Amino acid sequence: MNEYRSVVVIQTAFIGDVILTLPLIQAVRRLYPEAAVDVVVVPRAKELFDNHPDVREVIVFDKKGTDRGLRGLRRIAGILKSRSYDLALIPHRSLRSAVLALMAGVPVRVGFNRSAGRLLLTSHAAYQQGRHEIDRNLSLLSKIAVAPVQRQLPHIHPSAADAERINRLLIELEVGAPGKMVAIAPGTVWNTKRWLEERFASLAVNFDDAGYEVVLLGGQEDSGLCAEIRTLSGSSRVHSVAGMLTLLQSAELLKRCALLICNDSAPMHLAASVGTPVVAIFGATVPAFGFGPSGPDDVVVETLGLKCRPCSVHGGKTCPIKTFDCMVDIKYDRVFKTAMETIARIARRH
Predict the structure, then answer these.
(1) At what angle do helices 247-255 and 160-172 cross, to 10 degrees?
(2) Domain spanning 6-143 has what CATH number?
(3) Model pTM score
(4) In the chain, what percentage of residues exceed pLDDT 90?
(5) How many other CB atoms are found less than 10 A from the CB of residue 65?
(6) Which of 73, 84, 305, 347 makes a 20 to 30 Å CA pair with 296?
């Protein structure tokens, strides 16, 4: 096995994809404990690596902003070239990512055989559709490591300041039972992956009745949706923090919750990174694509038996057949029952 001394991991996709790349980064450090490991990510994902012990440097590639086009690509390639990496791991299957590693002069470039830039790679692993993305990413190491790599979950590291921010927030929100909270993340980029807001509201009422405080999580773009769900619930024990927290602060809050209920979206993976169990509601997409929840106690709620499903790899703006049966057929009492069974199952083990 070669002893790589300087490694760069290139993953410039969505936040959820970056979180699912963390086990690969963590495994690289276990294989090569003396190596310097850097990552290339988009601006929004940079924060995920704050305080991370396995990452030396985060290089931000603003591919849709200041680094757009060939000039930006050359700028980032120049930065990478100056670091003299001897290995590039490229889970992102875009041509741009492969070109970046080539322009940077990295001698060993490992990615997937389904990458748009596969001809620019020196080695590629088979992209196996039925495997989870964590396992697919770890399979890249089969091209450089002798021993098989053990599966692991992603880990991120909120700081003491993040913990203090959540302490203050819970006081400000007058959360009466901080030891008995559940989180709901109702947002997603794709409409066909979003469960109905009135169902989320009814679910929140169910948790209120069961004695739980409910926190609604999301980014600034989800603040209107979360406010509407809170209003529909009519409960003072349902709190919206959408747009108020950083990613690491959101992770710190999730760490304190008994459970997260969400769509097929990034919070599902954020929860896994701090060990919080997930009940994930899947509509247009399916876990078989490899992007389902990854924790040992995580559960998927979905509508099986629909010929139209899945209708898309990523989701879409509207249901192609105008029925939205995949989400409409999932009732709030079913999700609540699944959530409470999950909480009870975990409690029995402790």
Answers:
(1) 70
(2) 3.40.50.2000
(3) 0.95
(4) 93
(5) 11
(6) 305
